[in-house]
């Protein structure tokens, strides 16, 4: 027996056992309607600024693919290294029924997804063709999928990436029902042309439209692009959506989950937001300004995770934010708690909830002297704080997503025992103390400053850390006494 055939035999055995563990096939049973796909988008207008008239125009149409009629699930497998991959589509069955498979053409398998799946075309205002890309490969398992409807699992189940290793025997490609993935991954199209209006269209290849019975209206999505030459713009592409962004047609954006909306928390099973004292405090001189930098953390105790979810408003770059309430692992209700906005400043470029925390520098009389411009947050479990709590989650799962600019639905979660740390080197967060005289001050960190979030205890929402400002303009220093529960008693 050759070494190669020996490996192939074990590979075939493993493949068969694995497939039997996941899927039972009943060829005699009539197959239900196979799941299909449709394209959706969050914006139909973009403005591209470029530095010079001859620069490339780069556009990301920001188009997503989402399943229709159930989870889109295809399996790629072979029994030995020298065999070609076989590909089948799994058709999930209803209760008390058996899942089925249907064979797909083997030549649609590429090393990194479905071959020759999608193309991009660009036309000018007169309708003339400017660019037509070759057909591109589509990976259903692209990074950072988004929920697109209430149906489907709470978290995505398919692995990241579609890459077939040289010695791989099998892989699973798909998109869960109720989720969506970028059809162009993080790519786009680039072309040359004069300033003016263009239409960039993403379309699924005719072969896949027929193969998966995709409705013609679901196989195309387009964005209107205005190109302008402006000195000082980033070379090639700088996309601005302010005043230009509109969502796709009615019904394109996700529907809210099927859970009742309440004005009061339905139970005592709630998170407890608490702030930690500021640390890492230091003075810095940056671009002619004296700054006081620090780190801050708000964490969650209580008896439930903090779950805040944003849903994009039709035609706006704003999300309505809701807090979700649990009984065990089951969602029982939600309440409106504010909004989310896309934060474009350096170091961010993602969606922020506007009512999570507040930072202020108080003078010796505990009156606000300076407020940090940091007024919104992407809530992420960055640090474990109290994992000995009875309900603490030791390993947070796929819960939080800050979301890219074209996000449709964002969930931001802090599990019990975890906190979200922000360091003050990020744009807009440090205190500007250029015109603040030397003396004694307090760095105030407040959780849930507007009281919008529902929690078990608000008495631990505020912490103060004493600091003493010294030095001269352009060379400020800060003395930070050891932290005590009564900061007025600490000294330098």
What does this structure look like?
The chain has 492 residues and is mainly β. It contains two helices and 34 strands. Strands 2, 8, 9, 10, 11, 16, 17 and 18 form an eight-stranded mixed beta sheet that branches. Strands 19, 20, 21, 28, 30 and 31 form a six-stranded antiparallel beta sheet that branches. A five-stranded antiparallel beta sheet has the order 25-24-23-22-29, with no helix packed on it. Mean pLDDT is 83; it is low at 1-28 and 234-251.
Instruction: Tell me the strand percentage band.
Output: 35-45%
How much helix, percentage-wise, in residues? under 10%
Radius of gyration, CA atoms, in whole angstroms: 27 Å
Structural class: mainly beta
Shape from CA axes?
Answer: globular
Total helical elements? 2
Pfam families: Lysyl_oxidase
Protein name: Lysyl oxidase family protein
Organism: Haloechinothrix salitolerans
Keywords: Signal
